[in-house]
């Protein structure tokens, strides 16, 4: 009896295991990103096969078209099980890759595509089921080989998501860059995904396969430039050995349309002891930079240019010599101009120690750069962070957008310095969309932030972790940045759906719930960290965890208490005319709307206003009760994110399921810590009781103050 029972049990377990392995998808480690090319089902395979019976590229292959052909081999090999061989003759069912140079009839007066192609510029593409030379083909057409590569990725993407073929697409911005904050010793400032992928020691001789896969991933999104090193830069990066290393990376990235840029340290020639000063007006300094630019272009003929962090957070700059940011930027720009290089000069500056420290930090970038407008050389762009403080979970757009005639680059932070690193889930597509679509009100009828841009940069979240980004969901932030750099009108939700389908498979039972989680995630983080316009109340230095009580740092504007200004009388930073008047930096109509708390969107309320705790919110609740409700909602939603993921378990491969489940569990704990610590602290300041139904924090304020995060990553 005992024997047969255990036999029955064994049989049952065997059946369960067999069923589980039959349904659960195979494990994945995330290395393939959104370019996974897992087999399609039979009917989808048949329809793709019909579009690509052969692959035809008229004319000779170039490194870029070779990259497209290689991707098709890889992609169709995975999706269909085998890829068609390249053919030379156009036939029915061919997948045809053509530019007017390769197939002159595309440009003939009778070509129906001529005008459409002409409108696509150098990088755009069109996808079309059409007839060419009497044959039914699927056409990927563009004006250049890089357009063909982008079109190839778009075609593969449409297959992966199950979408119908995109008609045509062209980017609005020419500069679509990643900024790596990677140090030469391979640590990454604000990096939460391992070491820098750039192995400077092994370069230039040893070129990791990752560089090619990095290029593929970026080209698939249309990213066309990358700044290899941290804006807190070192002089060595501009010495010959490192230029040779950068050149080796540039060689790998070039076929994929990606240019290499470097962060230049202002005082490089002085620190290398090759000049006696770093004054931009010194002929010796100018000559040095000219020689340096010539040297770089000799090694990297298509070098993109420099990004510069000057006179910011202790970095050297032209102001050390009583020169302006424009003097500095223009001097570098003059050395790059003959080579068609550019300077991206960062506007992330705030008063150096000891100088007008009394001024609202949110105003300082504008105050420095607005008066210089019109003084910059044509190949200078001012690179502006999305908000005026620093990559907070939510910030209003920076007032420099729309205020300058000088071309402006957007700087987003893809790595989540202030949003829970790569351990908390926060899909940033919604944040990118919110900022890009915000109305600067700098023109009649409105003018979105997107419309004010000449380029866009994202601070990379890429590292040596097997999954590249620290977590699977953080891959989506790289993806969303790239897709929205290509098209600023893209909707975060559509981008999330694309990413989810490509990353987890185009099954609506998986895609729809994942998109829902993604779309909720960033607001969840805002709620448990910095609701209602609160900002910069994170832990000192590493910026992890709650620390609203901190008031003892070297500079007042590094202290959380400086930003939330909570006291018995109320909470929030008054940036109206009664306060710092930062609102005066915005367009008059914007300033008018945001000067009145009643017409200020509540998500920015405490950013612009200092209000009494009993201020009546739109919900009818007091500000105090509303603040508590937001913290509670943040915690509840963090728990819900976890539960939504758990419900997906049967449909996700075990490895990725577990890796994310562990993170979402950790996020619940982090949300609880934030909620409890902030409530304990703000209650100690407001002196108000917790309304009925609001749970008291689990510990004393002293306990929360004692929580530390030794060796938190990303902070050197
Ligand atoms: O957000 C802050 C970061 C610094 C960073 C700086 C900047 C590269 O805490 O780590 O330095 O901004 O953007 O320059």
Automatic annotation (TrEMBL):
GO molecular function, one term: alpha-glucuronidase activity
Keyword hit for Transmembrane helix: no
Glycosyl hydrolase family 67 catalytic domain residues: 164-468
A Gene Ontology BP annotation from the UniProt entry: xylan catabolic process
Enzyme class (EC, first level): hydrolase
Active site: 313 (proton donor), 390 (proton acceptor), 417 (proton acceptor)
EC number(s) from the headed UniProt entry: 3.2.1.131
Quaternary structure and interacting proteins, as annotated: Homodimer.
UniProt family annotation: Belongs to the glycosyl hydrolase 67 family.
Name of the protein in its database record: Xylan alpha-1,2-glucuronidase
Organism: Duganella lactea
């Amino acid at each position: 009896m005992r024997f047969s029972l255990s036999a029955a049990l064994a049989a049952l377990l065997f059946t369960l295991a067999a069923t589980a392995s039959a349904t659960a998808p195979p494990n994945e480690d995330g290395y393939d990103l959104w370019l996974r090319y897992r087999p399609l089902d039979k009917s989808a395979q048949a329809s793709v096969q019909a579009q690509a019976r052969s692959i035809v590229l008229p004319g000779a292959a170039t490194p870029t078209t070779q990259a497209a052909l290689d991707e098709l081999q890889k992609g169709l090999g995975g999706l269909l099980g085998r890829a068609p061989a390249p053919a030379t003759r156009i036939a029915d069912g061919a997948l045809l890759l053509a530019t007017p140079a390769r197939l002159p009839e595309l440009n003939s007066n009778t070509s129906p595509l001529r005008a459409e192609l002409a409108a696509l510029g150098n990088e755009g593409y069109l996808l079309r089921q059409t007839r060419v030379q009497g044959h039914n083909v699927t056409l990927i057409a563009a004006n250049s080989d890089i357009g063909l590569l982008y079109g190839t990725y778009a075609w593969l993407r449409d297959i992966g998501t199950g979408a119908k073929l995109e008609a045509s697409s062209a980017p609005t911005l020419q500069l679509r860059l990643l900024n790596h904050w990677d140090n030469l010793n391979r640590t990454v400032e604000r990096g939460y995904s391992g070491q820098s992928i750039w192995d400077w020691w092994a370069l230039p001789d040893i070129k990791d396969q990752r560089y090619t896969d990095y290029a593929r991933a970026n080209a698939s999104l249309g990213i066309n430039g990358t700044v290899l090193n941290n804006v807190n830069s070192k002089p060595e990066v501009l010495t010959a050995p490192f230029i040779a290393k950068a050149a080796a990376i540039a060689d790998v990235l070039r076929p994929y349309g990606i240019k290499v840029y470097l962060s230049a340290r202002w005082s490089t020639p002085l620190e290398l002891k090759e000049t006696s000063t770093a004054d931009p007006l010194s002929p010796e300094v100018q000559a040095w930079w000219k020689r340096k630019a010539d040297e770089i272009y000799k090694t990297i003929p298509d070098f993109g240019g420099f990004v510069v962090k000057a006179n910011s957070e202790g970095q050297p700059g032209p102001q050390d010599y009583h020169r302006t940011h424009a003097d500095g930027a223009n001097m570098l720009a003059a050395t790059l101009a003959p080579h068609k290089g550019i300077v991206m000069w960062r506007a992330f500056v705030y008063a150096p120690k000891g100088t007008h420290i009394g001024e609202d930090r949110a105003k300082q970038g504008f105050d420095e750069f607005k008066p210089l407008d019109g003084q910059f050389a044509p190949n200078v762009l001012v690179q502006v962070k999305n908000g005026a403080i620093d990559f907070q979970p939510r910030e209003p757009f920076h007032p420099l957008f729309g205020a300058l005639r000088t071309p402006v680059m957007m700087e987003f932070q893809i790595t989540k310095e202030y949003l829970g690193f790569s351990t908390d889930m926060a899909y940033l597509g919604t944040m990118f969309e919110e900022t890009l679509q915000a109305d600067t009100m700098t023109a009649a009828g409105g003018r979105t932030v997107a419309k004010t841009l000449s380029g866009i940069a994202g601070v990379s979240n890429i590292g040596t972790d097997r999954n590249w980004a620290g977590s699977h969901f953080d891959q989506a932030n790289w993806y969303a940045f790239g897709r929205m750099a290509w098209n600023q009108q893209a909707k975060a939700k559509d981008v999330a759906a694309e990413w989810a389908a490509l990353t987890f498979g185009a099954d609506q039972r998986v895609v729809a719930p994942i998109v829902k989680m993604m779309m909720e995630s960033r607001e969840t983080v805002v709620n448990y960290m910095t609701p209602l316009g609160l900002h910069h109340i994170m832990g000192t230095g590493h910026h992890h965890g709650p620390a609203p009580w901190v008031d003892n740092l070297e500079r007042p504007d590094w202290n959380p208490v400086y930003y939330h200004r909570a006291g018995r009388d109320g909470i929030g930073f008054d940036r109206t005319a009664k306060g710092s008047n930062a609102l005066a930096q915005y367009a008059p109509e914007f300033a008018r709307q945001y000067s009145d708390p009643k017409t200020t969107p509540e998500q920015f309320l405490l950013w612009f206003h200092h209000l009494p705790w009993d201020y009546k919110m739109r919900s009818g609740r007091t500000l105090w009760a509303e603040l508590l409700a937001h913290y509670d909602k943040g915690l509840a939603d963090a728990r819900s994110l976890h539960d939504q993921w758990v419900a997906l378990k049967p449909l996700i491969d075990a490895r990725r399921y577990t890796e994310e489940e562990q993170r979402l569990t950790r996020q619940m704990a982090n949300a609880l810590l934030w909620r409890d610590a902030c409530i304990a602290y703000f209650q100690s300041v407001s002196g108000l009781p917790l309304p009925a139904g609001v749970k008291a924090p689990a510990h004393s304020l002293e306990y929360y103050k004692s929580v530390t995060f030794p060796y938190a990553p990303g902070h050197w």
